[in-house]
Amino acid sequence: MKFELAEWSSKIEVGLPEIDAQHRQLFELAATFAGDGEQIRVLKSLAMLTEYVKVHLREEEEMMAACRYPGLEAHKRLHAEFRRMLFDLLENAKQMTLDEIAEAVKFLINGWFYNHILIADFAYVPSVRAASDLPRQPD
Ligand SMILES: [Fe+2]
Ligand SMILES: [Fe+2]
Fold first, then answer.
1. What is the value of pTM for the model shown?
2. 42 CA to middle of ligand 1, Å?
């Protein structure tokens, strides 16, 4: 799959402060992979990025579930695909050059993740807003 690579910008702000802060943090972390570095430090950063992504995806899924977002299952499948790509990279990174790792991180965050926010994350916002504006309904 080919994506336009893009940096974080207000264009991908969904308007939910906590989600936007997490998205932005992932882009900031991804930006640290460019340039020189030591293999060990880069591998640590990659493990950290994977961990942060995991937390973000889980929190987003919990939020969508709490709002009964009808697209939850499809969105979770996209997250599963993203997690798998990141774990594959984490596993293969020891045999990769730092440039290759930086390239792969760029594809995942500035490509895949950027486009995921624009399309899939923006799609849940109306449901989240509707659910948080209404008083809680007893089950
Ligand atoms: Fe997200
Ligand atoms: Fe998402």
1. 0.90
2. 23
What's the 61 CA to ligand 2 centre distance in angstroms?
8
Note whether residue 113 is domain-resident.
Answer: yes
On whether residue 36 sits in a domain, the answer given is no
pLDDT digits (tens, 9 = 90+) for 86-108: 999 999 999 999 999 999 999 99
Q: How far apart are CA 1 and CA 41, in angstroms?
A: 29
User: What spacing in Å lies between the alpha carbon of 38 and ligand 2's midpoint?
Assistant: 31
Cα-based torsion angle of the residue sequence 73, 91, 114, 82 in order, rounded to the nearest 10 degrees: -10
Q: Tokens 């499948």 — which residue?
A: 77
Distance CA 78, CA 84 (A): 10
